[in-house]
Amino acid sequence: MSSVNEETRHPFLEGLSKHRGAPPTVIVIFGASGDLTARKLVPAIFNLGLDNLLPGEFHLIGYGRRPIKDEDFRKMMDEAIGVHSRRSLNKEVWERVRQNISYHTGGYDEPETFESLAKKINKIEKKLGREMQRMFYISTPPSVFGSVIKNLGSSGMAQVHVQTKLASKVIVEKPFGRDLGSARELNAVINSVFEEPQVYRIDHYLGKETVQDLLVQRFANSIFEPLWNREYVDCVQITVAESLGVGSRGGYYDTSGALRDMIQNHTMQLVALTAMEPPVSLDPESIRDEKVKVIKAIQPLKLDTDLVRARYINGIIRGDPVKGYMDEADIPSDSGTETYAAMRLAINNWRWQGVPFYVRSGKRMARRASEIAIQFKRPPGILFSEGDKYNVAANTMVISIQPDEGVTLVMNSKIPGLETRTQPVKMHYRYSTTFGSNTPEAYERLILDAMIGDSTLFIRGDETEASWKLLTPVLKQWETSGSVGMEEYAAGSWGPSQSDHLLAQRQHKWRRSG
Ligand code: NDP
Ligand code: BG6
Prior knowledge:
By secondary structure, the chain is of the alpha/beta class. It has 2 domains: 168 residues, Rossmann fold, CATH 3.40.50.720; 279 residues, 2-Layer Sandwich (Dihydrodipicolinate Reductase, domain 2), CATH 3.30.360.10. It has a 9-stranded mixed sheet, sandwiched between helices. The chain has a 6-stranded parallel sheet with strand order 3-2-1-4-5-6. A two-stranded antiparallel sheet has the order 9-10. The longest helix has 21 residues. The structure holds NADPH dihydro-nicotinamide-adenine-dinucleotide phosphate and 6-O-phosphono-beta-D-glucopyranose (BG6).
């Protein structure tokens, strides 16, 4: 098959030359009739189309067990775009994407439907007159990740094209295992079929603009990095709070809980990016090497003193009464699952020894707020220390990940007037004010990066294993204890009081987030 200049064949006309181009691509989404495809994946693909970032030759195949006709699947996706797209429908662009969407019905453990899928892809390539890279997005429940991967291997679809060297890639959704053992098993299955550079393990927090900006804030400014260590930092507080409850996902959530659902992946990534050493370059492996080192340097957690788990009881959020976790749909009456977890992490390396990293994540908290707060040591209380007159706060840099993305510096200032009185003030930088509010969704960035082969914002196998290694003893203990030791917090609060004690032991206090 011939090799053709990408830009001249690009059907989305202008704009591509400004960006890194993706080669001709066929994306197969396994589990395409599900929630994630409609809410995130296809809207992300449409928005890439709007930005002229889809490759010239592009095809999307939905795959699933339920028989769906091509046109019916396209109609489902029409609706998905209408409801979930960040930007409103542009009929011309959507029509171009839409006419390259089809559906393939099949089971996840049926080798014959994988073979017919391979034939379908060959047919698409033949019609185009060229080979395409194949991207397999596994968006099913995790119980079938393994069989999809094995069938991709046995059908030959995992192989790189011999002539054009166009890749075959697999994108694996979370949860990546449920503990260290199952994560290792899944890595072993994946690596028996795909080479590591072909594997893209998703953590959508890495696709968020503010999370990516963390590296820029740290390493593109010279004023923060000299202070970013045990000499100047008193503690670090990372909060990932949601006001939503488990909604219709009770069945899944009860087998997971806050530690597996949020802390093992999203929150640990925030810890790693905050605490890591400067990478030698911005290439994916250098960044991932540094992240793994930090996670490995976290000391084993002391189960009786470093952790708090809790679940929400009924309460009030934004004026509306909401029910407690045990009254949500599909939660068994003997559930031992936490909806909130907090912990104190000790990173035992040269930079961070002695600086506690407090981490918390919960559902049905007072508001949606994810942030990283670097609390610096207080100045010596020599000049401004006298009672009410001098209200001196610890300097704090707050990186607000969502919803109000930006950076805030808390510093002390003189209150204007004839006497010298001080007060903490805030210096704000807001993304929306500086750059406008139309920020790409995480999945747009991640799908584009996978298409062009940039794995920086994806998790490497050893990274996920290091994080599970730290947390598996905790999970084991919590599973054994069931509800014993489970604290409670009212929906709409900032979590249980025990979580305050976790900080009070070291004379710290949670910041009021958001
Ligand atoms: P769904 O529960 O909606 O399942 C997706 C599809 O998988 C279904 O439409 C169904 O298609 C098939 N499926 C469902 N249950 C089973 C089963 N027991 N065995 C085999 N196939 C099944 O999942 P989501 O779309 O919500 O999520 C997909 C993946 O993405 C999951 O791994 C999830 O953890 C992850 N994820 C989802 C998020 C979300 O917001 N939804 C957020 C972050 C991650 P069919 O019957 O046609 O085969
Ligand atoms: C998902 C979790 O990974 O992240 C959900 O499974 C959670 O339980 C979601 O609600 C939060 O993502 P975001 O982008 O809304 O903060």
